[in-house]
Specification:
Helix 7 crosses helix 10. The radius of gyration is 36 Å and the shape is elongated. The strands form 3 sheets. The protein has a 5-stranded mixed beta sheet with strand order 1-5-4-3-2, with helices on both faces. With 528 residues, the chain is an alpha+beta fold. It folds into 4 domains: 119 residues, HprK N-terminal domain-like (Udp-n-acetylmuramoylalanyl-d-glutamate--2,6- Diaminopimelate Ligase, Chain: A, domain 1, 3-Layer(aba) Sandwich); 103 residues, GAF domain (Beta-Lactamase, 2-Layer Sandwich); 151 residues, Alpha-Beta Plaits, CATH 3.30.70; 94 residues, no CATH class. Strand 3, helix 2 and strand 4 form a beta-alpha-beta unit. It is 51% helix and 15% strand.
Amino acid sequence: MHEHFQFTVFDVLQRKHFEHTQVVAGHQGLNRIVKWVHVVEVTKIYKLLNGKELILSTGVGWKENESLFLSFLQQLIECDASGLCIEIGTYTSSIPQEVIRLADEHHFPLILFLKEVPFVEITQDIHTYLINQHYQMISNLEAYSQQLNKKLLSIDHYHEILKFLHHYLGHQVIFRINGKEAEFVPECPGKKKMQLLEHLAQPSNQAASQSIQLFSNEYAELSIVSLQQEISEFALLILDRTATAIAQHLLRDLYVEEKKRMQEQEWLKGWLEGEHNFQTISDYLADHDPELKPKGGCVSICKFKSLKQHANLDLTYFKLLFRTIFEQQGFYIFSVDLRNSIVFIMLNKRSIKTWKTRMQEGVQRLMESDFIRTKKVPCFLFGVGKFVENLSLINKSYQTALETNKIQHHLGKKATSCFYEDLHTARIISFIHQYGDLHEIVMEYLEPVIQYDKKHNGQLMETLKVYLACNGSKKETAERLFVVRQTLYHRIQKLQQLLGADFMKPEKRLAIELMIQAYEYLAAIREQ
């Protein structure tokens, strides 16, 4: 079925009342679309037209004034009218050559009624036809949608939908999933494929594309191209309905695929625990996807804070969203469900040099997605472990991702990064806290200052922190603390009494700076 519901100037000329007409200019524009018919007898019409109107006129507005005639025609062209039909006789006896030249230049049909015709009957006839055509278009669109819905219940692959779209419209269909090569229906030689893609890349009324969105992210693009005619309004509606159907099919397939992945959990858990060697991992990946050639990888963990309160929550859609975003950033994803966490094994498919930048962009898109912002999942911590080039060491990335989550939990909002490699001193402090008495070590260095502040309601700890951050610059420290130099000198003197005159010497200073961060780490834990 190749019904496109396009009513052109040429079609108009085949109807009654147009038997005695002559096209005197704009012959190449007879394929212009006609959406309505207007009778116009005024010469200023900029605000009267919406585009695609066929204009009927006796010429009374300009009579024999060539300048007014040219102005009127120029306005019609700029308003994207479909053509101008003029009744020859009472007010217009001939068409000036300059008018014909302008119409030919813009392929704008200029049609003469050689005999008197009833404009009212013309408008009634064409408007009735257009209204019936619009009703038929809606009926056909609804019938097409019903056929699509039936196909969605039975087809195994979206290719069946693409073939159905091509059969219905007759246009070349092009389908592209992000990161994959374009598919053509019907299939065509490589040279023609390049021609079609180039045509699609240029703004044109002979091509149209519809983005296919999954979880507010562009997952694929569906396009139609016609090298013979314009893409009709009806074809655009069909394209939109088809894109929606493909999105539903893809979402269903991805959901089923995600459910199947859950059956692989045990093997993946063993990988996280370091139970598989390099050859076993390589064989598994080759069976999973023969074209997959990973360049290292890392582990990311989403640890949910209140999953027990959402016992019936299905996190499959969250995993689909995660997969959709990070696959577009060049990662191949495996997911493992563990207690209150989802662990993602992320295999890098692009340059190792850019893995972190791509990861950061993916994290930002994840956090800004509607799915997250509308709180369809509980609050969670997101930690990224150490990047490893040898996939048999993925357990090390897993352990560091767990450590990142732990540090994030302790620091709360004070955590500065979700990447293990960015936490630096926080990792050292966490290690000391785990295997030693961190509070005792902190008090060994800072207790005199802490006790002084408690007793005198002072600000020595804050002064010490800023003074160290400013590398001992008294001027900069005073400015950042908003105090006069004399006040700062007094505080520094007090710090020397409490910590020793050597507290700014390199080794001792380094230890004090670390203990200040440890003190804040412990304070954050108490707040938690």
